User: Fold these one by one.
Assistant:
Number 1:
Amino acid sequence: MRVLFVCLGNICRSPLAHGIFEHVAAERGLDIEVGSAGTSHWHIGEPPDYRSIAVAARHGIDLTPQRARQFCAADFERFDLIIGMDRSNLMKMERLRGGPGGTQPHLLLEYALGEDRDVPDPYCGEMDAFEACYRIIRAGAEALGTRLASGIDNPPRS
Ligand code: 4NP
């Protein structure tokens, strides 16, 4: 099972989701490969934003090995589950997808918790926006872990 988290810059929200979900999956003994990407090219090759690194570190999660990359068409084939942080991320991915082929992207909070809302972009906010972001993503990641542990999202065996 391969899961990809996607946001705009791949430096704030999706690196948090990547690190948190890797942690949650390991805690639950789930064999899942986790990745993240941004719909923009703006921060390719950069480490996560220092505020995401700090918030994750406070919760015992290390984001420093991550580097930003841009979401690309091959990701629709490479990943079994693609999870965007907000509706704008989903719209940009759907535009690139251009049709029904490959993995259909989902919104994190909708898919994991049945809540039709975005993970707010904390980029222009203060540290408290990043802490809030951590809590929202953590809740989504825990619920996603529960959903994937149930086996209903397992890709078909080939
Ligand atoms: P992210 O946040 O999509 O959660 O990584 C942002 C990062 C960078 C920018 C906007 C949002 N930016 O405008 O550079």
Number 2:
Amino acid sequence: MTTANVRPLAAGNWKMNGTRQFALDLAMGLATKAAQAGAGLVADVLICPPFPYLESVIAATDGKLAVGGQDCHAKASGAHTGDVAAAMLADLGCRYVILGHSERRTDHQESSASVKNKASAALAARLTAIVCVGETEAERDRGDTIKTVEKQIIESIPDGATAANLVIAYEPIWAIGTGRTPTVADVAAVHGAIRRLLRQKLSDGGTVRILYGGSVKPSNAAELMAIPEVNGALVGGASLKVEDFWGIVAACR
Ligand code: PGA
């Protein structure tokens, strides 16, 4: 349920999926839905395609949807083979970048310190950083969920973060791509703790958007999005089908 004065965000993380044609078809399908909804759309809608398809998707959707990257480098430019600078994403027309997704923390050994540096670079390029946090199943079983998530947030938030340039995505790692989700009470407890922490750390922390991610589907989105301090969703698998993602967008209110 959205917090007062907070416009929800429905974000699709396409990960490393699809072809150029798939990306264009999906983006155009969603842009058509957004255009049909017009002013009735109560959430911001964001898609994060793979890097090679960003430019075509941005051109094809022509501002009807927000577009973002799935990562950026901490440095502004230089000898970093294979990496992408935040300013390059901004130059293309991206408005957001996902940082510290658990798949990057695992596949590329990204620490919260490196996520913080990337988030600083994102802010310097005038992008909104979506900083992902979440516990492993072992951390949850030990009762360390909130401690883990709070530590990640404290270590990842860059100087200069505000409600206008920072989004937090809470994604329990064991819920990503598994079809399993925490209970409503568990999500409420974690989002409540994140909100309290953000209020302590940032003067406008009461209105930073806090997304839930991990096996969000059209069938569970309404229940998840009705939880206090859940201000939208970060969606993987279900963001790859127009009807499924739009069902989730409709539940973000
Ligand atoms: P999922 O992925 O929706 O497929 O669980 C979420 C994410 O990794 O952002």
Number 3:
Amino acid sequence: MIIPGSASQSLAASLADALDEPLATVETDRFADGEFKCRVPEAGGDRAVVVAATTSAEAHLELLLLQDVAGEAFDEVVTVLPYMGYARQDRAFREGEPVSARAVARAVSTGTDRVLTVNPHEPTVCEFFDVPCEAVDAASRLAEPLPDVDDPLFLAPDEGAIELAATVRDAYGTGATDYFEKTRDYDTGEVSVEPADTDVAGRDVVLVDDIVATGSTMSSAIEQLHARDVGEVHVTCVHPMLAASARTKLANAGIASLHGTDTVERPVSSVSVAPVVAERL
Ligand code: R5P
């Protein structure tokens, strides 16, 4: 049985279709003091797959509650974290900070037999779980919704995303790859990117990253490209988090299209990761 968290209802439905497994209806409500409650009336069977993007503190809590239901009613519990919140805090950047990804992973581990997560910022985050955890690479899915572009340049906004850009290019079937040098000031959050070597004048570019969160990384890259007379700029990412005014920032920076997957369910989630996740379940 597939048990969806509130933030992953479309993906859970696609997974239920792909695996031909029942999709649980989760009833949610609140106690008078505002605390969250949920119920899975049909819970019971061999295996529960809890699918929950932990895009907020409330989503983290909901996941723990759903795992608790599943642990009581099923022989095996698998947890799918399409988007793992706090995964980017995978080390203490300054003295006195927690390793938030580790704290979250330990909590999630208590209610499951294994974990699948999609394109975490660093696959090493899997080591923080106390149960087996696998990182699923959904980058190849990003090629599908891209428009037809003649000889595009697939650009990563930093060196860490170059493999992602290469995977999208391979799935797209044509084009070159390159990357920008990025630096981020961890006190102010300000991002600056240095242009890549490839000449982009008049050339259409697909910017590829694992996540668009505040949009600072992408909008800096887009500005650099327009300063160099780029053709059209298309943006794609696995996790379209699009926090605060990120969507507006990208529009104002000048993009022809924006695409993401359903690891984070947003209006731009134009392709599902269900096929690649289903293969691992
Ligand atoms: C960091 O290295 C990631 O790959 C992304 O580039 C980054 O997290 C995106 O965040 P934002 O949209 O806030 O710049």
